[in-house]
Design brief:
Number of strands: 2
Order of helices and strands: HHHHHEHHE
Strand order of the largest sheet: 1-2
Shape: elongated
Structural class: mainly alpha
Strand content: 5-15%
Largest sheet: 2 strands, antiparallel
Radius of gyration: 22 Å
Length: 188
């Protein structure tokens, strides 16, 4: 039975790693792994001893898969390059909330070592993103009286037209020639 358990755990880690590796961008890896960290299988029906054992096995299988996804978060976050302070903090909250939820499930199930490992991972990720995001520019809300092309707005805000793609990414306009009247942009 232990060989099968180890093989399943290895397969769960391989799946989480494959999802992370399949993403071209670390942000995509986080997006792909996030639902896996919270995956809960459909409860099995029944009330007898066999059903109880089947539910316990199902819970253990789901827990291994969720923990593998949480571990892969560490690698995805390490590779992620936040665009702004706000981006780093949003990712920090997202990942820490997912790790907290799985750590709580592990503690509730009596898996103390798993709980402690997840809490250590959460602390490392939180510190890493806090340090990397500390010196990044913040997003501010830009308001204009008329729509402007993104290239002209990049020059107006930054005196640097090479920042236009970042401005378009932040503003998400329908077309780069017509930025909205209000949009977020980096303050530096």
């Amino acid at each position: 039975m232990s060989a099968q358990t180890d093989a399943y755990a290895d397969a769960a880690v391989a799946l989480a790693t494959a999802l992370e590796d399949a993403a071209n961008d670390p942000a995509d890896a986080v997006r792909l792994l996030l639902p896996l960290t919270a995956w809960m299988p459909v409860p099995l029906p029944g009330s007898g001893a066999l059903s109880t054992n089947a539910r316990a096995a199902q819970d253990a299988i789901a827990d291994v898969l969720r923990c593998a996804a949480c571990a892969a978060f560490g690698e995805a976050v390490r590779a992620y390059r936040p665009a702004s302070y706000d981006d780093a903090q949003a990712l920090r909250r997202l990942v820490c909330d997912a790790l907290d939820a799985q750590a709580t499930r592990s503690a509730d199930a009596g898996r103390v070592a798993t709980y402690e490992a997840l809490r250590s991972l959460r602390a490392a990720i939180a510190l890493d993103l806090a340090v990397r995001g500390a010196n990044l520019a913040r997003l501010v809300e830009i308001s204009t009286l008329q729509t402007m092309p993104s290239l002209a707005e990049a020059w107006t805000l930054y005196q640097d037209t090479t920042r236009e793609p970042d401005l378009v990414d932040a503003a998400q306009p329908a077309h780069p020639l017509f930025l909205p009247l209000a949009f977020p942009a980096l303050n530096a």
